[in-house]
Amino acid sequence: MLKSRPSTALALVFLLLAWAAPVSAQQLSTGTERPWAKGVSQEKQKTALELFRAGNALLKESIFVQAAEKYRQALALWDHPAIHYNMALALLNLDQPVEVHEHLESAMRYGAAPLDSEKFENARAYKTLVEKQLSRVIITCDSPGASVSLDGRVLFVAPGRYEGLVRPGQHTLLATQEGHPTTDMSRTLLPGETTPLALKLYTTEELTRYRRHWAAWKPWALMGAGVAVALGGGALHLQSRSSYRDFDTQVASCGGCVPPQTVTDLRIRGDNLQRVALGTYALGGAAVITGAVLVYINRSQPYRINPGSAESESQAVNLAPLFGGRERGIQATFRF
């Protein structure tokens, strides 16, 4: 997969978010009355907040990998929007825009309640900016039982649909099922655009095409020409025999006299016509034999095309731009 560098707009967000202060321990509170705390025990909340605080300390020191790991551990205990938001801060600095988008969506899941309204709008703006740097794909497959994967990651078993964001660049789609040729499709995706892609499993018959060395009529035309030449030779042969008959008749009527030149010319003409007829037979026969051989060589030969080529034949890719939002970056705080 080809990776693209963040654009100037996204780089600006990185810079602004680098100054964002994580939630301090004094700002945290626990309880079960809030929707995002439903079903989470006090013990899990307490442990998650401790991990969250440790992640914040690492984030302040720009130790992003370890900070992200602390937030990941905290989210395993408590799926809190604020933790998702700080996770997005860490991942932005690790150049993981797809994961950043996922965590920003989770941070906005309950609206502005776990964040103040200003910070919620900031999260919306960050999310829009990230979307401009990524490509959105809509992948569908209606072939029952087909396993559909994108860049080696299984998305679903058909029939199904997947919609998500990926980095711009070249990506490979596969649809596989036992007993069917694998459908392999490669596409280069552009940032900020939506690309619908429909995959299909094909049978061997659907992927079979036929080709010849030459146009089908050419060997047959050569055979036909050979037959015509041979027929011409036959006509010359008949004329030769006619000349010989005329010669024999004239000699017989002469009664043993020396035949005049006109009679001798009949024999000479017959000899010449016979030689030409034999040559014509040889030429026509060679053409017929050659044409027959070429007809055999030129018989229709089956070959299989790549399923991706079949996809290209049957599918047009339409691109639709995503809508952008305003660009803002500001320090984040949270309300629990």
Automatic annotation (TrEMBL):
What keywords tag this UniProt record? Membrane, Signal, Transmembrane, Transmembrane helix
UniProt cross-references to Gene3D superfamilies, sorted A to Z = Tetratricopeptide repeat domain
| Family annotation (InterPro entries) | TPR-like_helical_dom_sf
Q: Tell me where on the tree of life, at the top rank, the source sits.
A: Bacteria
**What are the TM regions of this chain, as residue ranges?**
220-238, 276-297
- How far does the signal peptide extend, from start to end residue? 1-25
- Stated name of the protein: Conserved uncharacterized protein
Query: From which source organism is this entry?
Result: Stigmatella aurantiaca (strain DW4/3-1)
